[in-house]
Recover the amino acids of this structure.
């Protein structure tokens, strides 16, 4: 019996504290003008002291469960994408599972940095399609503020904290109709690992480390690989990119969103952008943007949505879903 995964609930959560460009420009040698012109970012949310990745993930998951109209008891898989786990181990997903009261199935973290949500969605979709789980929480949650070198103006202005989650449910093809995850595409090129990395970790330095990025090189790869991933997901799904209703990109830089839209001839009005308000929240950015588009009434049940991301690894990917 062929199974299809349906997105039946979406939720997100942002820390209360907002850090504006103006405030940042009092701490490092930057300006609101530079940040807005080069990235489109105007502000980002930053977790409070003691507020952890798991706390953000739990809030987003609770909202996704409510929007799906299902209980924690119905969940039998949690895949949590993060590059900023609470601890080196156990997985942040284990903490989230316990806090939500989920008592069935597996819960694990997945590390693909900014592409994490796309990789997590593809992973959960495969579990569901094989009948190995019935209802999954797929979460992207980050406290990237904890990885930043606040003296490095070329990176500290870019990132923010947050979480987003979806409930993915297995249905038979007959039940699903046209809805569901139509195709996914994920890719890693480890030769490019030193373009975007954290210079610490348990094995190499026995420390957490700070984020380092060769920004302009990553930028060039981003436009090329994201466009390729989007076309590949459409080809795998047998869908013409012109038939996509909403593009939900990873929110790294407005210039990347614009560059990809230009390259693929996409109407800018179909691209969901939260980069101005959230900055780059890594694995959280795609589900955060999806939640915004659903809550403000743009993306509706039955719409075709194409999500995409690129991040450290380098990793990149895309997921085509009919809501
Ligand atoms: O989410 C994972 C994927 N990440 C991305 O996709 C990020 C990709 N990269 C980018 O978005 C862009 O490369 C950045 C926003 C990071 C940088 O923009 P850019 O246009 O590539 O600038 P640049 O790195 O080439 O730097 C241009 C200039 C430099 O000065 P000089 O050497 O030309 O004098 C930098 O020192 O801008 C300077 N600069 C800044 N100036 C003011 C760099 N950061 C800042 C800053 N404020 N915050």
């Amino acid at each position: 019996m062929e199974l299809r995964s349906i997105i039946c609930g979406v939720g997100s959560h942002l820390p209360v504290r907002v850090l504006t460009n103006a405030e940042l420009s009092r701490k490092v040698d930057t300006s609101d003008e530079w940040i807005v012109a080069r990235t489109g970012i105007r502000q980002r949310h930053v977790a409070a002291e003691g507020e952890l990745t798991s706390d953000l993930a739990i809030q987003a998951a609770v909202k996704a469960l409510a929007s799906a109209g299902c209980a924690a008891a119905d969940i039998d898989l949690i895949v949590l994408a993060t590059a900023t786990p609470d601890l080196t181990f156990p997985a942040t997903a284990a903490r989230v599972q316990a806090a939500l009261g989920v008592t069935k199935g597996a819960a694990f973290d997945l590390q693909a940095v900014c592409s994490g949500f796309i990789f997590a969605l593809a992973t959960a979709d495969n579990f569901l399609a094989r009948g190995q789980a019935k209802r999954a929480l797929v979460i992207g949650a980050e406290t990237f503020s904890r990885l930043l070198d606040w003296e490095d103006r070329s990176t500290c202005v870019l990132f923010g904290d947050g979480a987003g989650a979806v409930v993915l449910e297995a249905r038979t093809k007959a039940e699903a109709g046209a809805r569901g995850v139509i195709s996914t595409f994920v890719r890693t090129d480890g030769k490019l690992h030193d373009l975007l990395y954290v210079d610490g970790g348990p094995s190499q330095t026995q420390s957490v480390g700070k984020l380092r990025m060769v920004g302009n090189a990553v930028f060039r790869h981003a436009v090329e690989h994201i466009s390729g991933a989007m076309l590949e997901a459409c080809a795998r799904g047998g869908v013409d990119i012109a038939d996509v209703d909403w593009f939900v990109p990873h929110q790294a830089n407005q210039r990347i969103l614009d560059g990809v839209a230009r390259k693929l001839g996409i109407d800018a009005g179909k691209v969901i952008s939260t980069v101005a308000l959230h900055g780059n929240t890594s694995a959280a950015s795609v589900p955060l943007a999806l939640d915004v588009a659903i809550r403000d009434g743009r993306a509706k049940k039955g719409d075709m949505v194409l999500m995409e991301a690129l991040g450290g690894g380098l990793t990149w990917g895309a997921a085509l879903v009919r809501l």
About this structure: Residues 30, 34-35, 38-39, 114, 153-154, 157, 215-216, 218-219, 222, 252-253, 256, 280, 310-311 surround oxa(dethia)-CoA (CB under 6 Å). The first helix runs from residue 21 to 24. The chain has a mean pLDDT of 98.
